[in-house]
UniProtKB/TrEMBL annotation, chain A:
The keyword Transmembrane helix applies. It is a multi-pass membrane protein. InterPro entries: ABC/ECF_trnsptr_transmembrane (IPR003339). This is Energy-coupling factor transport system permease protein. It comes from the Bacteria. It comes from Desulfofundulus thermosubterraneus DSM 16057. Keywords: Membrane, Transmembrane, Transmembrane helix.
Automatic annotation (TrEMBL), chain B:
It comes from Desulfofundulus thermosubterraneus DSM 16057. This is Energy-coupling factor transport system substrate-specific component. The chain crosses the membrane at residues 6-23, 35-59, 71-92, 104-121, 127-146. InterPro entries: ECF_substrate-spec-like. Gene3D superfamilies: 1.10.1760.20. Keywords: Membrane, Transmembrane, Transmembrane helix. The lineage of its organism: Bacteria, Bacillati, Bacillota, Clostridia, Eubacteriales.
Length: 309, 207
């Protein structure tokens, strides 16, 4: 499980963007998912993300992410109705509880809980997409100019991570050959055997750290200004995608100033679609956000577009 | 419902982490030994968090290591080791908007180790174990702040306490795991880290 990263290079169009583009695009999605209250808008974002995740061939990974989110979602859906008293339509009169007061569950609170959990799913999906779409090495490369040491530590540790899992296996096997049986004995005895394993791992890793430090010193670490080599290209697809995300953000902020994307749950829930403009604003924002999706489709089906982006 | 606290808390977390990490970039802040020790300990912690986090639920042999690192090597190394732990294990488990706050929490565990050192220089493994047990709960309480502001409305004490209560069993598991692992392994870890601390400490007589 730990011999490779979560990210897999599949040579897909959506994985070929410049890392900065992907970061901006996903940041815009994240901001939108946090500023929108409107269930319809959140649902639209969720569908868009589902399409994008399908496009990076990540439906299986997405399922894992969503499963992890279900517990959090249940908490959100339970807590909200229990404590919110602002709703007008009471669907269940509960008993009085000492700490919380009278347990009246209102329709609006349930509704709000559902909308919040939808937002939770959207956020989880955004990060699922991040993990599928962008190679962490390229993100680190992007920041290596401004934050050399942090990136060095992260790269070193990420590289050492699978080594440690392997080392642990190796030490275990060596001890087994010497007659330590990890599967027998009482819990306390077994814990003792495992603690021996841990000590050896800690000692040998720190010994390795010393060697790494000496080797860094020998390569003149920290002796002067660092040089940076980067091979990321900005292509037309990146410009289209960047433009799309910025326009989407502008359109969304403009819409929010006039109340499109806001939604009042209390004391009584608003209409889902108040007027036509709600849909028009949603459509504009969604159109700008779906630029990567459209480009990806064009890449597959239109040779002219493929040669240009 | 006007103020968007979810957005603000997430952004605050990101900014705080960036600001604190930028301290690492300062020229001469860390030498090559410290950099490699941070990387190795962070990898060890991340491995402990990811491997056992999946298998043993929340019984992770990790938090005490971060804490002892802070205790032995000081606040700076402790913070960076702690902050890197969730970042690196999340490369394998999946990054998310929870990462910045987790980084802050784990970093705080490391800093707190250094605080213990400052308050009780002679503290042994018993003190560290007690602190580690408390941090099992404190970590949950701080992470709940993030979860609460992003997903709960209205933001009152009742909703916070309910969020906390919902995670109480997980927090207890974490605290008990910390207690168990720190009591069993803390003493040797302390000895090994102190030995390497002495070995690392190089003073140049002449530049």
């Amino acid at each position: 499980m730990f011999d490779r990263l979560f990210y897999r290079e599949k040579g897909l169009f959506l994985q070929s963007f410049h890392p900065a583009t992907v970061l901006v695009y996903l940041l815009v999605l994240l901001i939108l998912s946090l500023i929108y209250d409107h269930p319809l808008y959140l649902l639209a974002l969720f569908l868009l993300l589902a399409l994008l995740i399908r496009e990076v061939d990540g439906l299986d990974a997405w399922e894992g992410f969503l499963k992890a989110g279900v517990f959090l979602m249940l908490v959100v859906m339970m807590v909200n109705p229990l404590v919110i008293r602002a709703g007008k339509t009471i669907i269940w009169h509960g008993p009085a509880v000492p700490f919380l007061g009278k347990l009246d569950i209102s329709m609006e609170a349930v509704y709000f809980g559902a909308a919040s959990s939808l937002r939770l799913l959207v956020i989880i999906s955004i990060f699922c997409l991040y993990n599928l779409m962008i190679n962490p090495d390229r993100v680190l490369n992007l920041f290596s100019g401004v934050a050399g040491k942090s990136v060095l530590v992260i790269t070193l540790a990420t590289r050492l991570f699978p080594t440690m899992v392997r080392d642990l296996q190796r030490i275990r096997e060596v001890q087994q050959l010497r007659g330590v049986d990890f599967d027998t004995g009482s819990l306390w005895q077994r814990a003792k055997k495992y603690s021996g394993l841990y000590n050896v791992l800690l000692l040998s890793s720190l010994e390795g750290a010393m060697e790494i430090a000496e080797s860094m010193q020998a390569r003149a670490f920290g002796s002067g200004k660092r040089s940076v080599y980067s091979r990321n290209m900005i292509r037309p697809r990146d410009l289209f995608c960047l433009g799309g995300s910025l326009l989407a953000l502008l359109a969304a902020v403009w819409g929010l100033r006039y109340g499109y994307g806001r939604y009042t749950f209390y004391p009584e829930a608003d209409f889902l679609i108040k007027d036509g403009a709600t849909l028009v604003v949603l459509f504009i924002v969604l159109f700008y956000l779906s630029v990567p999706l459209l480009l990806s489709e064009g890449w597959k089906h239109c040779r002219f577009l493929k040669s240009k982006i | 419902m006007g103020t968007n606290w979810g957005l603000y808390t997430t952004l605050t977390g990101i900014l705080a982490v960036l600001l604190l990490l930028s301290a690492m970039e300062k020229k001469g802040a860390l030498d090559s030994r410290q950099v490699s020790v941070i990387a190795v300990l962070a990898a060890l912690c991340a491995a402990g968090r990811a491997v056992t986090g999946v298998g043993l639920l929340f019984l992770q042999p990790t938090m005490f290591l971060v804490e002892i690192t802070g205790f032995v090597y000081g606040a700076r190394v402790g913070f960076f080791t702690g902050a890197m732990t969730p970042l690196i294990s999340n490369f394998f488990m999946g990054q998310g908007s929870w990462t910045p706050w987790q980084m802050l929490c784990w970093g705080l565990v490391g800093v707190f180790g250094a605080v213990v050192k400052a308050l009780f220089p002679q503290a042994g493994n018993k003190t560290l174990t007690a602190v580690c047990f408390l941090w099992g709960y404190l970590y949950g309480a701080i992470m709940d702040v993030w979860q609460w502001t992003v997903f709960m409305r209205p933001l009152t004490w009742q909703t916070y306490l309910l969020t906390w209560a919902a995670g109480f069993s997980f927090d207890s598991l974490r605290a008990i795991g910390n207690l168990f692992f720190c009591a069993a392994l803390g003493h040797q870890t302390l000895k090994i880290l102190q030995y390497f601390h002495k070995k690392m400490d190089v003073q140049y007589l002449e530049r």
